Amino acid sequence: MFKILRNIKNIFVHIRSSLKFVFLIIIATVLIIGVISLVYRPMYSVTLNGEFIGYTTNKSKLQSRINEYLEQSNGTNNIAFIDIQNLPEYSLCLLKKENASNDDEIFEKVKNSGTAYYQYYAIMVDSKEKYYVSSKDEAEKIIDELKEKKSTNIDDIAYTQIHSTELKEFTDSDTIVDKLYKKPVVVASSGYSSYSGQKIISSEKPSSAVLGVGLIKPVSGTITSRFGTRASGNHKGLDIAAPTGTTVAAAAGGTVIFSGWDSYGLGYCVRISHGNGVVTVYGHCSKLYVTKGETVSQGEAIAAVGSTGNSTGSHLHLEIRVNGAAQNPQIYLYK
Ligand SMILES: [Zn+2]
């Protein structure tokens, strides 16, 4: 009986020392974990195409940022789609706290590994890309505005959709309209026009420079009325018959001092000052290609023959004025 009691006592002593040992182990473990967590923390090591690109503590935040970037193909930032070969891979590890999370760098590296395809619009002039805009609406608005303003170059302007890995700088639509707008020379029933052929239309040798200005024939044709007195009054110019639309060349280089409707009967009319007090006048035109203030060269297309104003048939009325007085053009030309 006594022996049994002693055995029980022995067992208790044994259990007590075992429990002490377990407690020691638990305390040691807690201490070790405490020390480790002071120095280390769990982080994700990120690799892209097998190459280490950084650490992150917040894998889901980083991945959703990347996903967001990949999904922004709905027109924002003009990105049509983004092509990325592989997504990054994550592996959990315990790292010293000094290893900072570098989500921004990882994001940049993933972004740079992909190719963004942009979609935008080019405003074309003569089939050449001239300006870029973000949307189709903007491109259409520009064309519509130029049409509305009757810009004379409207037939040469178009827009096209661009798909490119390169994003161009956009220009705002008002600036584009301003830069492209070409003012109609004359808004009239006969229509306005810009001369689209070769600019210098005559290579004729100028007549002797009697006026200090060498002149060339603005059109070739038959003389139908000469300078001087006639039944209807004094004719201050020379009439040269030519089909409507025939290009009228500047008789000499100079500055356009008038281009528009002449209310004294010459219809659509151009006047050019050549210096030395010499002015040439071109009347009854169907189209005017120049505007007041413009500098023209000898032989340059300035208008088209017509029959506007006080006229009965298609012809050019040519005047040569010296210090305001009309001279007989045949002294110098069409002799
Ligand atoms: Zn005349």
Proper CATH architecture of the largest domain: Distorted Sandwich
Overall pLDDT metric: 85
Total discrete domains: 3
Calculate the terminal CA-CA distance, rounded to whole Å: 162 Å
The chain-level structural class is alpha+beta
Q: Tell the overall outline.
A: rod-shaped
- In total, the number of strands is 20
* Percent strand: 25-35%
Biggest sheet architecture: 8 strands, antiparallel
User: Helix coverage percent of residues?
Assistant: 10-25%
Count of alpha and pi helical runs: 5
Describe this structure in words.
This protein has 335 residues and is of the alpha+beta class. 24% of the residues lie in helices and 34% in strands. It folds into 3 domains: 41-113, no CATH class; 118-180, no CATH class; 222-331, Glucose Permease (Domain IIA) (Distorted Sandwich). The protein contains 5 helices and 20 strands. The strands form 5 sheets. Strands 8, 11, 13, 14, 15, 17, 19 and 20 form an 8-stranded antiparallel sheet that branches. Strands 3, 5, 6 and 7 form a 4-stranded antiparallel sheet that branches. It has a 3-stranded antiparallel sheet with strand order 2-1-4. A hairpin with a 4-residue loop joins β13 (254-262) and β14 (267-275). α4 (136-148) runs parallel beside α5 (173-180). The longest helix has 38 residues, at 2-39. Residues 225, 235, 237, 239, 317 line the site of zinc ion.
